[in-house]
Specification:
The structure holds two protein chains of two kinds. Chain A is α+β, with helices and mostly antiparallel strands. Chain A has ten helices and 20 strands. Chain B has helices at residues 2-10, 70-87, 120-135, 204-208, 211-224, 242-254, 259-262, 334-339, 374-377, 429-434; strands at residues 17-35, 38-56, 59-65, 104-108, 142-158, 163-181, 184-190, 197-199, 229-230, 234-240, 292-295, 318-323, 326-327, 349-350, 359-360, 365-367, 382-394, 400-412, 415-421, 424-428, 436-439, 446-455, 460-468, 471-478. The model of chain B has no long low-confidence stretch (mean pLDDT 97). The chains are: A alpha+beta, B alpha+beta. At the A-B interface, strand 1, strand 2, strand 3, strand 4 and helix 2 of A face strand 2, strand 3, helix 2, helix 3 and strand 6 of B.
Chain lengths: 446, 484
């Protein structure tokens, strides 16, 4: 939806709110069109497209606020959603910490829209998928995966003159290649679909499936691991909800009593940077506040955390632009993570490892201990034994129970960071890591 | 809505089309939460749209839109057709569907008190009273409560001539107490974690849950856990409360029996299954006392998997999954049923909204009540009893699992002797179910709702139902999550 259309809808929201005696009102407009071509058993089996736009209205009335959302954007739908928002706001208990609506701001634009990506056709996706399938099938394997393209927008507007608008396109290609008793996986995402190479991803997945055939079972224990970027992303990505002033105030963050302390190794530096060239997403938060860069971790020391406007005011600090749309219980979180890398490569990490495990991907990661930040999960789709600096064999998949604090204190090497895409955390910019004493506790049967 | 669904069907007629269906859906939701004595999240939502699925050139195409004008629906239909024809670029076999009958029906789930008739301020008063009671306990850092309501009306129309109008009311409610002390975070939830209990009911569920009455005990346990001993590591008899057992069923029985997973459709994301079609009627899934059904019928209870017809217009059914310990059946769609030679789908296709394609989803996958009393279930010389899920993880073929619970108790000769913190257990699915030694009877059976089951690409979040009574399992590996 174009910016002018958003403004026009917002003026209708303001008009409807004033008719009900309400002058303080915010609207979020979000939506777009997403198409996804899915394949399995070397054929397209699901192929979908969906279009939706939501209007979400939040009045502020005497220290109270609530939100009503609709996807009916005709005049009656807009009037109704405003009336509902006003009605439930008036019935809500006042919140003494509720801030007035944010004022207007200047935004550094984030150019993430590619017309060609928005216009990718079902046939173009199908042809790309067919080509990728041919690579895997040609190796005597079976392919499954997705190719998605889409466009989205987000607008935040309020009656104090705030007007933020962002649009972007996104493409994702993911593929699993299955051989007898083994599998391999690869995935990439980019705002411009031309940056994806489905054939190269298919070849990578197929190569892993071939290399891990007839996997050995080796006992659980503490191993040196080489985590490829997707594995780093999916595991490390679990902790960033804790870099939140609200989470700390609630006592649910592992950073309670750890701000300013050295928690990770000296070689760990983590930023949040909405404008990093490999990042995606809008440059403003759920209230329309511009996202500021944060140094979350420097030299292993916890430096900065995110503050929404609601969390910043009582703390006497400036909001960082990481708040979720109000009202919410979670407060804020950094969403544009960049973990600084090093100058190693996965190949060099393997070459420098006497005995260890190379991990492609992790799966079903869940928190076991919220303060020690222990997570459990499984390896998946390409797990290898490294011996004497070489990949020696595929191995059966492990269950891990691993503290992130311990893991990020045991990093021996980092690669250059890349935009990584997994299934358990949002896309981030992360390096591969070589980590000592990673804790595998069980082995499964495949 | 009938007209919308029928107009959508009209939009996908044409050469090469062998089947089509359309779902016109209207969803209304309301969510109210509190946090430490204040309103947390008060919101309401509505969403309306139409999803059109068409089988053309032997392939599926699906398009969904919120533009419900005549032009919007026609455009969506045309896009669904283009997508189906494009799918033929990477086709192996033409899709065939198990036969199904034409149905015309209207059905609404039982709802004694329309949850939208209860005002937001009354909801908040109820929740804030619970919140106050939780925070009365010294040491509670964070009290959270919630109520979630949904009304979903769907009109399904298909080229078989079916026209089915269904309305489902869903209610969820619960609370939790979190305590942070000296580098230790402990939490207790009621009646279940991750939002509480969810059922296909109206506001009456909130009244039945006795939230206020249970608040002091739950808050006290959250704080007491700091002083509790760490759950030991080793092999012990394990006794699970029915809510944790419900999730165990979900992960280690419900997902593996989805026939689309078995056949590879989910290989790239949710994964596959350790089960094969050849295991039917042969695999010893559990001990003799383990009987599991997949039952979407209203008589099974107000589960999140209860309906009259699935999203392919197939009537709700009850199917044996495990009978006397032997694996008996998968959950199917019309397509997967046909692909394994079944004469009919057992009706498990559901979409989480108008904008998504129906997938095989759990309905109510439930462990039938056993013959033992609660005392017999607890009759272990030395065991660990665990309550309320805290973490859950299982491999992509649903074989190796690990669960953590909020609270545990050491059991000696059938009695609780000490509270344990951070309890966890792990195992291999079939080995675990074959160690089932006792299942409590019907009076201890509860139909739990899991509101957040993820599957599919784009991911869909579905509510599923799982009935269970407390049960005991012999010699289960316990405590490895915190092991050295």
């Amino acid at each position: 939806m174009e910016r002018e259309t958003c403004r026009r809808i917002f003026s209708q929201v303001v008009h409807a709110a004033r008719a009900l005696g309400v002058t303080e009102v915010e609207a979020l407009l979000a939506g777009g069109e997403d198409a996804l071509t899915r394949f399995a058993n070397n054929a397209i089996h699901q192929n979908v497209s969906a279009r939706d736009v939501d209007l979400s209205v939040r009045p502020v009335i005497d220290g109270r606020t609530a939100r009503a959302t609709t996807n009916r954007l005709d005049a009656e739908g807009i009037r109704n959603v405003v009336a509902e928002a006003v009605a439930i706001t008036r019935l809500t208990a006042p919140d003494p910490d509720l801030q007035p609506l944010a004022g207007p701001a200047e935004y550094q634009p984030a150019e993430r829209w590619f017309e060609a990506t928005a216009q990718v056709t079902p046939r173009e996706r199908a042809l790309a998928v067919a080509e990728a399938i041919r690579v895997v099938e040609g190796a005597g394997q079976t392919a499954a995966g997705i190719y998605s393209t889409g466009d989205s927008f987000l607008a935040a507007l309020n009656s104090r003159g705030l007007s933020a608008w962002h649009r972007e396109t996104m493409a994702r290609f993911s593929i699993t290649a299955m051989a007898a008793g083994s599998s391999g996986w690869a995935k990439a995402s980019a705002c411009y679909h031309g940056d994806l190479d489905p054939v190269q991803l298919a070849a990578a997945a197929s190569g892993k499936a071939a290399a891990s055939q007839a996997p050995r079972e080796i006992p659980p224990g503490r191993y040196t691991v080489i985590l490829e970027p997707a594995a780093v992303l999916d595991l490390a990505g679990q902790m960033f909800g804790d870099f939140s002033a609200t989470a700390i105030r609630d006592g649910r963050s592992f950073l309670n009593d750890r701000i300013g302390r050295k928690v990770f190794g000296q070689n760990i530096d983590i930023l949040d940077d909405a404008h990093h060239p490999l990042q995606s997403g809008p440059p403003f938060d759920g209230e329309g506040v511009p996202r500021q860069p944060l140094t979350l971790v420097e030299g292993g020391v916890i430096k900065e955390i995110a503050y929404s406007r609601q969390a910043a005011a009582p703390a006497g600090v400036a909001p960082t632009g990481h708040g979720f749309p109000l009202p919410n219980e979670l407060g804020e979180a950094p969403l544009n993570i960049v973990i600084a890398g090093g100058d190693s490569t996965v190949e060099e990490m393997v070459a420098s490892t006497e005995r260890g495990i190379l991990v492609t991907r992790l799966w079903y990661i869940r928190e076991v201990d919220p303060y020690q930040k222990v997570f459990t999960g499984m390896t998946r789709d390409g797990t290898f034994l490294v011996e004497a600096g070489r990949i020696a064999a595929g191995v059966r998949n492990f269950r891990f129970n691993q503290s992130l604090i311990e893991m990020l204190s045991n990093v021996e090497a980092l690669s250059r960071p890349v935009r990584a895409s997994g299934e358990e955390s949002s896309d981030m910019v992360v390096p591969a890591m070589k980590v000592r004493d990673f804790h595998f506790t069980e082995v499964t049967r495949f | 809505m009938n007209d919308l669904a029928l107009a959508a069907l009209d939009s996908v007629t044409g050469p090469g089309v062998s089947y089509a269906d359309a779902r016109a859906v209207e969803i209304r939701g309301r969510e109210i939460t509190t946090k430490n004595g204040r309103a947390g999240h008060v919101s309401s939502s509505e969403s309306a749209g139409i999803g059109i699925r068409v089988l053309a050139s032997g392939c599926w195409g699906f398009a969904a839109t919120d533009n419900l004008s005549k032009e919007g629906i026609q455009a969506a239909g045309a896009l669904a057709l283009r997508i189906a024809h494009a799918s033929a670029e990477a086709r192996k076999d033409k899709v065939s569907l198990a036969p199904e009958d034409k149905v015309e029906a209207t059905w609404a789930s039982p709802c004694r008190i329309d949850p939208f008739s209860i005002s937001v301020d009354r909801n908040l008063d109820t929740l804030l009273a619970v919140d106050r009671e939780v925070r009365r306990q010294p040491g509670v850092s964070l009290a959270e409560t919630c109520m979630v309501f949904e009304r979903r009306r769907q009109v399904f129309a298909s080229t078989l001539g079916s026209l089915i109008d269904q309305t489902r009311y869903t209610t969820g409610a619960g609370f939790s107490a979190l305590s942070y002390k000296d580098g230790d975070i402990q939490k207790r939830s009621y009646p279940n974690s991750f939002g509480g209990q969810y059922q296909l009911k109206g506001y009456e569920l909130v009244e039945e849950l006795r939230l206020l009455e249970n608040a002091p005990r739950v808050a006290e346990e959250a704080v007491a856990l700091h002083q509790a001993d760490q759950c030991p590591e080793g092999e012990f008899d394990l006794i699970l409360d029915s809510s944790q057992l419900g999730l165990q069923i979900h992960e280690s029985i419900g997902h593996p029996i989805e026939l689309d997973r078995v056949l590879g459709s989910e290989a790239n994301y949710a994964g596959m299954s350790f089960l094969t079609v050849e295991d039917l009627g042969r695999l010893r899934y559990g001990s003799d006392i383990v009987n599991v059904v997949c039952d979407a019928r209203q008589q099974h209870g107000p589960g999140l998997g209860t309906f009259a017809f699935d999203d392919e217009g197939v009537p709700a059914q009850c199917s044996d999954v495990i009978r006397n310990g032997v694996f008996m059946g998968f959950m199917t769609s019309r397509e997967t049923a046909a692909s394994v030679g079944r004469k009919r789908s057992n009706g498990c296709m559901r979409a989480d909204g108008w904008e998504r394609l129906p997938l095989i989803r759990m309905t109510n996958v439930s462990l039938e009540p056993g013959a033992q009393s609660l005392e017999e279930v607890f009759d272990a010389d030395h065991g660990i009893y665990m309550e309320t899920n805290r973490s859950w993880s299982i491999d992509d073929k649903r074989y190796n699992f690990q669960f953590g619970c909020e609270i545990g108790w050491e059991i000696r000769h059938g009695k609780r002797v000490r509270m344990l913190k951070n309890p966890s257990y792990s195992g291999i699915t079939t080995e675990f179910w074959n160690r089932c030694a006792a299942i409590a009877g019907p009076k201890h059976w509860t139909l739990w709702g899991v509101p957040n089951c993820g599957k599919g690409q784009p991911e869909q979040v579905m509510g599923t139902g799982h009935g269970a009574s407390p049960a005991r399992f012999r010699n289960v590996r316990i405590g490895s999550a915190y092991g050295a």
